[in-house]
Amino acid sequence: MSYQDLLITGGYVVTLDPEIGDVPQGDVLIKNGRIASVGVVSLDEARGAQVIRAEGRLVVPGMVDSHRHVWQGALGGSTGDASLLGYVGRVVEKIAPGFTEDDIYAGTLWGSLQALSSGVTTIADWSHNLQGVGYAAANVRALHDSGIRGIFLYGGPGPDAAAFFGQRQPPQRHPEDARHVRNELFPDGTSGRLRMGMALRGPAFTTPEATVEDFAFARELGLPISVHVGMAGFPDSVETLHRHGLLGPDVNYAHANQLTEREFELLAETGGSIAISATVETLMALGTYPATGSALRHGIPAGLSVDTTTSSGVDLFSEMRMALAAERSRANKQAVARHEAVMDVELDQRDMLHLATTGGARAWHLDDEIGTLTVGKQGDIVVVDMRAPHLDGFGDPVSTMVFGAGPADVETVIVGGEVVKKDGQLVGPYAETARDLMRQSRTRIAERGAA
């Protein structure tokens, strides 16, 4: 793949690299898709590079969404009034079974571009509506075509979506199709900017016996695992995994809202990671509070995530705000109940930016490649225009961005040295066709009576 060298110059560079820190008026040079220099770049170093002016902008690492159902990209706004079980009944049981391979491609492509446009350059795609190898191939092709970096998490469900992710407990194991998908689409472990993993039901949605078989299958294939745990109404999931010896550093745990202190300790001891979806967790009543504080207190790698865009936005700016507000509410609950004035608050805007970038990278063992603006890492960079009235602030620019920015403020997005958003607009061969495909898919869904 040929690359155009890029020089991002004159911006406020937030590297999140502990040895570099912030560079208030700095440059970032990308060569051959990777970061070649950070700080003040000389004319000789940057000779021949395409220049991206960044005065009045914030330059940050590309954000990492650690858990999203990307195939639902065309279904935005369909479950804003629903709990988790309402979402299962409406989307998983009613809409999902009617999806064709074309719907999977359209939804995943549109969902990936939604993420990219909002500054998310890496995504863990929890694909749980894959009714065969053709569906998986369509999903992977859409991820490729979008230009996003990611982990494709193969999640089945086979012919019966409701049995996979509903209240029933199916005894069947994870679809054998996953082996074929790995061998054909990920023969070397990676495929372009993508890697493969397994989206497993876990003990919350199947029997312990099926869970043991599913975990063994994923580990036989050498693939990382993601499961949903700690949601209200689905207790004891981590303890079940522990009893069967299934916990490990290759497992990412989505949500973890209702875990006990002992369960958090087990995750910390076994090296697991957590994906926090603060908006969905609070709106869908998955738990009283997100697991943000508990994960950080136990030293568990954790990242932020959107989860399902059917009942939330598409960006991690909103997740940073929701996660911070919810955690401060949780931490101050006892003092407020005693009518005490709180002198200091824990966690701040930079903690949230870490969760949205380096945290997600660590959660998926990608922190040697992405998550900070460090020489040698992938050129995944986001430029946020801070010149608008709602962002042109007095204090810490990171604070202003975290508390006020949104997708419309993302001016430039670069993945592996490739510009995928420029001057506030998505670019590339699929930027326009994706919209048409998404609308065609919506029409088909409505005609099937599912919308």
CATH superfamily of the largest domain: Metal-dependent hydrolases
Low-pLDDT residue spans: none
Q: What class would the helix/strand composition place it in?
A: alpha/beta
Total beta strands = 18
Instruction: Name the average pLDDT.
Output: 93
Q: In the CATH scheme, what's the topology name of the largest domain?
A: TIM Barrel
User: So what's the CATH class of the largest domain?
Assistant: Alpha Beta
Shape: globular
Q: The biggest beta sheet, please?
A: 9 strands, mixed
Proportion of strand residues? 15-25%
How far is the N terminus from the C terminus?
41 Å
What does this structure look like?
This protein has 15 helices and 18 strands. The model has no long low-confidence stretch (mean pLDDT 93). Helix 2 runs parallel beside helix 3 (133-146). The longest helix is centred in the first third of the chain and has 17 residues, at 101-117. It has two domains: 6-62 and 372-426, Urease, subunit C, domain 1; 63-363, Alpha-Beta Barrel (TIM Barrel), CATH 3.20.20.140. Helix content is 35%, strand content 22%. It is globular and about 60 Å long. It has helices spanning 84-95, 101-117, 133-146, 161-165, 177-185, 208-220, 237-243, 261-270, 278-283, 292-297, 316-331, 333-337, 349-363, 397-404, 433-447; strands at residues 6-14, 22-31, 34-39, 50-53, 57-61, 63-68, 120-127, 149-154, 190-191, 194-199, 225-229, 251-255, 273-276, 302-304, 381-385, 410-415, 418-422, 425-426. The strands form two sheets. Strands 1, 2, 3, 4, 5, 15, 16, 17 and 18 form a nine-stranded mixed sheet that branches. Strands 6, 7, 8, 9, 10, 11, 12, 13 and 14 form a nine-stranded mixed sheet that branches. With 451 residues, the protein is an alpha/beta fold.
